[in-house]
Design goal:
Helix content: 55-70%
Oligomer: single chain
Mean pLDDT: 85
Distance between the termini: 51 Å
Radius of gyration: 33 Å
Largest sheet: 5 strands, parallel
Strand order of the largest sheet: 2-3-4-1-5
Length: 910
Amino acid sequence: MTGPLLSSKLYVPGPRAGALERARVSDLLDRGTTTKLTLVSAQAGFGKTTAIANWVQHRSAPGGVAWLSLDPGDAVPDGFWTYVATALSGVDPDLAAGVAPLLAAGAALPAVLTELLNRLADLDHDLVLVLDDYHLVDGPEIADGLAFVLAHLPPHAHVVLSTRADPSLPLSRLRSHGELVEIRAADLRFTNDEATSYLRSHGVDLTPADTAALERKTEGWAAALQLAVLSLRDRADVSEFLAGFAGDDRFIVDYLVEEVLSRQPRPVRDFLLRTSVLDRLTGRLCDAVTGHEGGGELLRELERQNLFVVPLDARRQWYRYHHLFADVLRAHAASDPAVPSSGTLHRRASAWYERDGQPVPAVRHALMASEFARAAVLMERAVPDLLRQRQEDIIVGWTVALPDDVVRTRPALAMGLVAGLMARNEVDSVPRRLDEIEDLLERHRAAATAGSAPMAVLVEDPGELARLPGKVHLYRAAHALVSEDLEATQRYVQLATATAAPDDHPTRAGAWGLSGLAHWRTGDVEATHRCYSRCVEELLEAGHLSDVLGCTTTLADIRISQGRIGEAERTLRRALALVADADETPRGAADMHTGLAGIALERGQLDDAESHLRRAQQLGDAAGMPAHAAQVRVTMALVRAARGDVDEALTLLDEAERLYVADFKPDVRPVHATRARVLVAAGRLGEARAWAVEHGLRTDDELSYLREYEHVTLAMVRLAEHREGLRQHVGETRAFLGRLHTSSEAGGRAGPLLEIALLQAVAADAAGDADATTTHLRLAVRLGEPGHVVRPFTDHAADLPRLVGTLDPEEQQSPYVRTLLAASSPVGPRITETAPPPRQDLVDPLSRRELEVLCLLATDLSGPELARHLVVSLNTVRTHTRNVYSKLGVSGRRAAVSRARELDLLGRDG
């Protein structure tokens, strides 16, 4: 959608000429600002938009109003939330600063909405978001996102929702919690007094009896009253006219619109009927559809006459008809022989949008005109951009609207549909569609080989014809992978790389990536690394830097799993060098810093880890791949756990689990298992045991690479239970660890093997097997020393001195072993609380972390800056801040700082 159309969606309608400010309705809208949601729900014609617009102009909250007028094309989640973010940016540009890039990067919706909520929470003023005509987009995907936002909406933010039908939202829960104000048809109906005032303001002065008759027959329906005003002007037979009212609302509108139309000059009537096919109107578009000039001036004149024309921007360039008025106009147009057919009118509109460079409405009108062949051409031109913008829903919706034979005869368009279906994980029809594409291409080749005229294969880009065979095999490989047919995946990968056009680097890159994923699922990490390296080579040739960075995280993870942590670091730093040479920060840059933070954590370099995490936070989730939002929180959690902040670590892991985005990559380190490890380290074995039961983990399980991390975690739980005296025998655990050792060693996975060997040393020590203890510990030391790995050893800080004592004296004095002992000592990096806390005259004293937050509240740092400084999430900062306010008995930052100074809690520099 182009600029003028976008701005029209965000324009707050001004008060209509003669519009009545209705105190009753405005009072209800005022009440809504104390709740999360104001629902304005009534059928068409009840004046919902006008009532809200008048309230916005005269009474709305002083902080700001963001207005979004919706249409059916906005029912795609990415588009809907992009428009919401853009609307909110009109109130405060910072609101969209972190959200729009995330949407553009294809980030998971929970990450997008969390960022939006974080930004809203940072506002220091009230804000109202108006979603007008919400019924046009109401569906499960939109409703789920909006329900999430409403559940976490900060107190100073409010949503006003205008709709013809109750939305698919948890209204009962909102109602029971006092978080909902409802304005319905009964509230919007004009009373007798309001009807009298409205009529008089438009120069219609009826007798009390006639006014009562009109109010009774229209039942206070705003649209009917407005149409009545247009019909009653300068009419002498008022009572006789009013006696003609009968039937239901639909009949009244038909009757009144006919009266209004009959009183218009023929050119105006003709303009109204011809342009009724348009969702949005602007002068040049109307001229193209009607075949006459002067459309812009006529639209402005219709607005001046209050003839159901709603301006959509402040410059009065774009308009729309009142929905109910447009419905009736279209019905009249269909029966008027002087008006061209709707197909002709839609065809003209489509041609205008095509010339104006707006493919989405151009396609929509072509479909409405049943010009399917032309619509297919327009679609094919637009598909590459839509795929880059992650708007697969539009592609699928378009192609579903076409006759199937049209899609089958345009292989490039059919391939766009396949790409869209795969992206949406709707894979059942993909093999059949690929068969049809391949069959069409084969028939085309056969005709060319036979020397006869080749088939009329319709492809807008001739070069695309050469690229299609490789793409067919690529998507067959992708379908095989999601179907867990790894043998077929590799077979189609070979075909894709062999048949890809010379310049089709993306197809070859995709094929190598799929091959790597197939190897990954079997635990062959070296083959995975080879494939991903080839993938990166092709992506560099294609100039796809963000995808290079996405693959780099995988390459680094594989090297870490192989115990080659130095190579992992070099891989990430080489990628960062590419970022430094880029014109702007590419998506994936933040992942590089998160990866380096993880390496620093493995080496026990917590300060360096926090430094990289701060940089990743500064870049934001928008500079990360879809999985970044979860991964950065996992790494932050592990750093906080290493610092001894278990509660913060668990909070961060809860956020990470909520934000996790599944993709083609196997989830070999599930967040829930990392959470179990933190619980074990904190001594919360009951919760850790419950985790193992919940996920069905047993020591006699069949082992697989995909669950290796979980099984190693289970072994940690079992050894911790033994230490607590809950298990008297460790033989079962030692046997389990032995099987894990064999599996990991066979797969060349030295990273997990180090942890397993260390656990085996702990288990052997518990069993009194000194020789085995020494053997396993030596292996762990040998595996960890090249990469200076520290973290697994500090996880066993209490046991390590005793374990090291089993080594030879010379081994005990090696620099690496001495480093491990120093890192595991009570003065190592876990112990950060050295100075005694200040004396607190509080019933509920502040914790050390809360004192740290309190001191930072006395600075000029914003909420996100506080989070970056503390290396925690913004939600964690808010939790601490709320606790600080509660314990100090204050309600805001300034009051908290003032109270802290009174209690001498800030120290000399506070």
